[in-house]
Design brief:
Chain lengths: 427, 295
């Protein structure tokens, strides 16, 4: 046997030995990664997007990872995330709200600064609208990526307004007059299901926006304005006025969000103040009101306050600090700002999107377009106070609003809130 | 065999595993909680040692004081329902009325249902629009008494206490009934021959003989009312505006919602202290030579 033949046999043997190894490497099990999202039954359209994007990512990613996700209902989600964060066992990717909600996790070093990957990927960052990263930035670093935007609007029943010859209110006095007209005709003027305190808080916040505008909000955040500032007390009194004129339905204190919305969808209430996340529910052809919904921004009681509305970025995703492969996690999150996901957010889930993705107006509901138009006319946006101030002061603001709407003294409740804020800082 | 069982090694073998589990899941967390309550921490950022400031702050916290008040209200309500009322029911069933076993099961039934399910059911019953309570008041032409039971700070606590009373009356009745059934019937026969009335028999025979059980029952009632969580959480979540907050729900709120774990731990420790105090007080109140000590 000559030498070259020997070499050939040895090479063939080596190749044969290496091949199974090679094929084994190709079939190496995918590394499991985890994600956690908010997703109650109402958000089925969003959950469907998450599932679609996750399946797609798992099938074609080059990181050899496989994402598994879990969804939880709102309250459960908050408890779960607080627990896993404190126990250092957070999932690789998680849903978060902006501002004060994410802040303690960032300060505790539990969140990966996704901004460094975002800034390195120019194409990714250029997808987003201007200013969307503000509410998710801390100390100049971006910690989450928002995929939607929300704004709170007053939905109104165009048929009831027309039949009762009520014009869309442009001032607060006109709004009050509209309430009186509807009340006199036996129609519920505004559905305010405030068993969930945040709905009362949302209403009070918008009334405060109409009294003090952006100055009041900015002052509150900067702690130069107290919760018992005359503007807040005035807003709380306006809320009391609406209660006194019976602008809300019977039993509004014990009514849940779903029940309150149903009064509007069944055309029993003329107005409903809620976030734009309800567009899908209200534009659904199955509900009687779907053909008769219009929107306006709840008018300011003081015109000098400007056209301010409550709004925020939404559908934010972040990477936890203990994520083993932040690049894979970032690639996963990046998919949600892609054309396919953003179109699905707009067309299927009726979410105002956070990117510049061009949308086909024909595929959007008229209500979506109307809310979008309102959003463009707004001169200032104040994020929900319970997001800005987190669970302590923010939730107590909602509780104070709930107490005022239940008939308690506005000045006293706002004073108590300020006292709480002072005490809470020491705990 | 006795010698073997009384040896210290043997006791250690039998008690050791149970003690280990108890220490791991009972004692250690309590000690950890005590330590945690001396810090201002969200368990993520480095905590700051604040000594007893968390406890001092509790004294000025109107929501904490309200929770404590609500808890005491619950203790009083539970005690009324689960001591005199349960005793009365137990005594009626003990007197061998027709269908005693049936009624025993019916009274006991609510306490085998989970608290969350009961909370949900009663939320519907109390609903201001379609709830049973307001419908009954309407039918009785008492519409002026209709309330938004769970949404009114003035009525919410009473509404919850009624449910607690209803849920556990059967449980305590069964405990007391079991104690009564352990009493020898000959005592009652002898008393009857001597002409003792039913009331005299109850006061002179039943009560003294079930006293040790009543003592344990009293501790169960009070500590149970202090620790109550599930029903309040599912029915109102402590609302409206903290109107139905009790210590355990407020502890949950401060811990899992506002991430003030040090402060929440302080509330938890107050709860432990209160339960311990109840046991000591009950030992003093029910003290007699034959009684077993609870601690």
């Amino acid at each position: 046997m000559n030498k070259s033949l020997m070499t050939g046999i040895a090479l063939a043997a080596a190749l044969a030995a290496a091949l199974p190894g090679f094929s084994q490497a190709a079939k190496a099990p995918k590394k499991a990664m985890t994600a956690m999202f908010l997703g109650s039954s109402q958000d089925q359209a969003v959950v469907n997007i998450i599932k679609r994007m996750t399946d797609k990512f798992n099938a074609e990613n080059s990181y050899n990872v496989e994402f598994k996700f879990e969804t939880y209902e709102n309250e459960q989600y908050k408890t779960k995330l607080a627990t896993v964060m404190a126990a250092n066992s957070a999932p690789d990717v998680f849903f978060t709200w902006s501002a004060g909600y994410l802040k303690p996790f960032v300060e505790g070093g539990k969140v990966f600064p996704i901004g460094q990957l975002l800034n390195a990927d120019k194409e990714w960052k250029s997808r987003f609208n201007d200013g969307v990263f503000g509410p998710v930035s801390y100390g100049g670093k971006i910690y989450a990526v928002p995929h939607g935007q929300t704004v709170a609007v007053m939905y109104y029943n165009t048929r009831l307004f027309k039949e009762n010859k009520v014009a869309v209110p442009t001032t607060f006095a006109e709004l009050e007059q509209a309430c009186r007209t509807f009340k006199a005709k036996g129609i519920i003027p505004i559905s305010a299901p405030v068993k969930d305190a945040w709905i009362a808080g949302q209403l009070l916040q918008q009334l405060a926006n109409g009294v003090g505008g952006m100055d009041l909000f900015n002052g509150t955040v900067a702690k130069t304005k107290a919760w018992n500032d005359p503007s807040y007390v005035k807003a709380a009194k306006l809320l009391g006025e609406l209660v006194a004129m019976k602008a809300f339905q019977d039993g509004y204190l014990g009514m849940t969000y779903d029940q309150g919305r149903e009064l509007f969808t069944q055309e029993k209430a003329a107005m409903f103040y809620m976030g734009s996340w309800d567009i899908g529910m209200l534009a659904d052809p199955k509900v009687p009101v779907s053909k008769n919904v219009g929107v306006f921004n709840l008018p300011a009681s003081d015109p000098a306050a400007g056209n301010v509305a409550i709004g925020d970025v939404d559908q934010c995703l972040a990477i936890s600090a203990n994520c083993g492969d932040p690049k894979a996690a970032a690639a996963y999150i990046k998919m949600f700002s892609g054309v396919e996901a953003q179109e699905a957010y707009a067309y299927n889930a009726n979410y105002l999107i956070s990117t510049k993705t061009p949308l086909d107006k024909a595929k959007l509901s008229p209500l979506f377009l109307e809310v979008n138009a309102i959003q463009k006319k707004i001169t200032g946006v104040t994020p929900w106070l319970d997001r800005v101030f987190g669970a302590g002061e923010g939730v107590e603001f909602n509780n104070a609003a709930q107490a005022v709407i239940a008939g308690k003294d506005p000045a006293e409740k706002m004073k108590a809130l300020q006292q709480f804020a002072k005490d809470n800082a020491l705990r | 065999m006795d010698k073997f069982l009384s040896s210290k090694k043997c006791i250690l073998i039998f008690v050791g595993p149970a003690f280990l589990v108890f220490a791991l899941f009972g004692l250690l967390p309590i000690l950890f909680n005590v330590a945690l309550s001396l810090f201002r921490t969200d368990l993520m950022s480095p905590g700051a040692y604040v000594g007893i400031r968390n406890y001092a702050n509790l004294l000025h916290d109107s929501i904490f004081l309200q929770s404590l008040g609500n808890n005491l209200l619950m203790v009083v309500g539970s005690f009324l329902a689960h001591m005199p009322l349960a005793l009365l029911l137990a005594n009626i069933l003990f007197s061998k009325i027709k269908g005693a076993h049936f009624f025993q099961s019916v009274f006991f039934l609510p306490c085998v249902v989970c608290g969350a399910a009961i909370g949900l059911t009663w939320t519907f019953i109390y609903n201001s629009e379609f709830g049973l309570v307001n419908r009954i008041l309407e039918a009785l032409r008492l519409a002026s008494m209709k309330r938004q039971w769970l949404s009114d700070e003035g009525t919410v606590m009473v509404a919850i206490i009624v449910v607690v009373m209803w849920q556990f009356v059967g449980y305590h009745m069964v405990i007391q009934l079991a104690a009564m059934r352990n009493i020898s019937p000959t005592l009652y026969e002898a008393a009857a021959i001597d002409g003792a009335s039913g009331w005299t028999q109850f006061v002179k025979i039943t009560m003294p003989l079930i006293r040790p059980i009543l003592k344990i029952d009293a501790v169960l009632i009070v500590t149970g009312s202090l620790k109550y969580f599930d029903l309040v959480f599912t029915m109102t979540g402590g609302g409206p505006n903290h109107g139905s907050e009790v210590l355990s729900t407020y502890m949950y709120y401060q811990g899992f919602r506002t991430l003030k774990y040090g402060y929440a731990s302080a509330i938890g420790n107050v709860l432990v202290l209160l339960c311990a105090a109840v046991i000591v007080v009950s030992n003093l109140l029910f003290k007699s030579k034959d009684d077993m000590e609870l601690c």
